[in-house]
């Protein structure tokens, strides 16, 4: 997500400075590749780049092709095939055995304002979006390569498709992608031709709620901002909740635990970490969070502490279902032997990422099958 937001910012800056640019997007892959569909790189006419398509293997060649796309103002499909055992093709010793299909498109004022600005606006509103991109056509008048459809989380749409036969099925598949939160490549067979379309689900930035502004929250907030996540920090101690200590926090809320629901609307897309190191405050925050739709609740401290907290809530007549309790991770973090605040922060972030990706968080060398799920 951070890379995508960086590209949006770089595109805006290029427009402000009067630079021309091209956008490279991975739209389809086969086999083992460094990046997956949705990876992007912005290339300006003076050679500056933002984002990464590969581990540095294709970038120079892409820059040369991008110059032609910028000059011609015409989109172009580019394919890199590393399935051949004859590595003389690239002379790079890639070690990957896959095929990467990229769409290079000129980033004109029209496309930038219609799509990048719209996407940025929706993401800032914590709305997901689905962006569909036509990257291969067969038949006259089906659609243009580089045509787009954008479906926002609030149901609004925008597209530049001329082919009416393509609009309805693409909109339906965009809606499915929004519901399933999954991207795919879809082939459409129409009366006068066919089109291949990359339907991309773009999730809103992860929103993390951190309860407790102690010293160990400092690296946690700093690290997640490097990932492009949004962070809301909550504490009832004004001396701890300062901009000097947490310059990267998107919001700092001064609140007692029993009043936190007056300041925060909990959403199912949120993740939360409770790190107040105070039993009574942890108890109140846990009560609020387990009753909320928040998808991950991390609690610092030993397992016996969380068990005591749940017993205390039960004694107050407050019980939770197994599904609600399953969202509680205590002790928070994956088992990497973390001790320092920085190591603990890394452990917690890794666990959250595993939960968001529906992964177990184990060693990749012990994973059966490919690292990435097959893309289709």
Question: Could you walk me through the main structural features you see in this protein, from its secondary elements to its overall organization?
Answer:
This protein is α/β, with parallel strands linked by helices and 376 residues long. The chain has 3 domains: 106 residues, no CATH class; 92 residues, no CATH class; 150 residues, NAD(P)-binding Rossmann-like Domain (Rossmann fold), CATH 3.40.50.720. The strands form 3 sheets. A 6-stranded parallel β-sheet has the order 13-12-11-14-15-16, with helices on both faces. The protein has a 5-stranded antiparallel β-sheet with strand order 3-2-1-5-4, sandwiched between helices. The protein has a 5-stranded antiparallel β-sheet with strand order 8-7-6-10-9, with helices on both faces.
